[in-house]
Write a structure and sequence with these properties.
alpha/beta, Rossmann fold, six-stranded mixed β-sheet, globular, disordered N terminus
């Protein structure tokens, strides 16, 4: 892998705290994503993984700290500058979010029609190329109702990469997949990252598949960054949180109950105070 590409930072969190209203979900987060890397952001349900993704795309702004995306503070962007920055990203949503009234080809072509002025011949070439990359070139004519859930996930992946973004964001890319589709999807993410020389960020709790393809792993929980390092580094860790998560143990520092928030306390007071 090219050294210059590896050193190219696309996402950088510095002392970042994130939350909603009065509730802080994560605090003191420092992390970095480089071009050419697959980075897994892991943690239990409700740990704040998806909050990290929302911060990268500027759906929420940090309560503290700075988030740089493509070398610029994402919080400082608005309007056309924010739109242009987001256009350099591709997002694979957890449920795929395909248009059911469009066939496979038109679903993948949609970003090209919306954001570019290329010819129909170029659209056909690019769409079939990306469908080929996910093994679905000959499914281009099918309706969404005619394909399986695993195939739909691959169509969504083709759509996410059709503009050849510099940064790919995946929200639980392995959720609900059978073992074969899961392995295929993981390898597709690795191959597309290498092919496009982009960076891929996975929001996931799937240990085996993520560790098989990731260059770097960040593990969040208890409102902070618990651990980070290569998959091998974390596999060798004896930290109680890391071991509980990786080994799937029911007992340990990871709490099952959602934490009490100011919003809940206020709500509870209003409801229990009724006569």
């Amino acid at each position: 892998m090219d050294t210059q590409a590896v050193n190219d930072s696309l996402v950088k969190f510095s002392g970042v705290s994130l939350g909603y209203g009065d509730f802080t979900v994560l605090q003191g987060i420092d992390l970095e994503v480089h071009r050419g890397q697959v980075v897994a952001m892991m943690g239990g349900s409700g740990s704040g993984k998806t909050t990290l993704l929302r911060a990268i795309t500027a759906q929420i702004t940090p309560q503290q700290g700075t988030i740089e995306v493509f070398g610029q503070s994402i919080a400082s962007l608005a309007g056309e500058r924010l739109r242009q920055t987001r256009q350099r990203m591709g997002v694979l949503f957890q449920q795929g979010a395909l248009f059911t009234d469009l066939n496979v080809f038109e679903n993948v072509a949609f970003p090209l029609r919306e954001h570019t002025h290329v010819s129909e011949n170029q659209i056909t070439e690019r769409v079939l190329d990306k469908l080929e990359a996910v093994g679905l070139r000959t499914a281009a004519h099918l309706n969404i109702s005619e394909i399986s859930g695993g195939m739909a996930r691959r169509v969504a992946l083709a759509r996410a990469v059709v503009l050849e973004p510099e940064l790919l964001l995946y929200d639980e890319p392995f959720a609900g997949l059978d073992p074969i589709s899961l392995g295929v999807t993981a390898q597709l993410i690795r191959n597309l990252t290498d092919r496009l020389q982009c960076a891929s960020v996975l929001i996931t709790h799937d240990v085996a598949e993520s560790f098989a393809i990731a260059d770097q792993v960040y593990m969040v929980g208890q409102g902070k960054l618990i651990a980070s390092g290569t998959p091998q580094h974390l596999s060798d860790s004896q930290d109680a949180f890391v071991r509980q998560f990786l080994d799937g143990e029911p007992d340990g520092p990871i709490a099952f109950n959602y934490p009490t928030t100011p919003a809940f306390t206020k709500w509870l007071g209003e409801h229990t105070g009724r006569s």
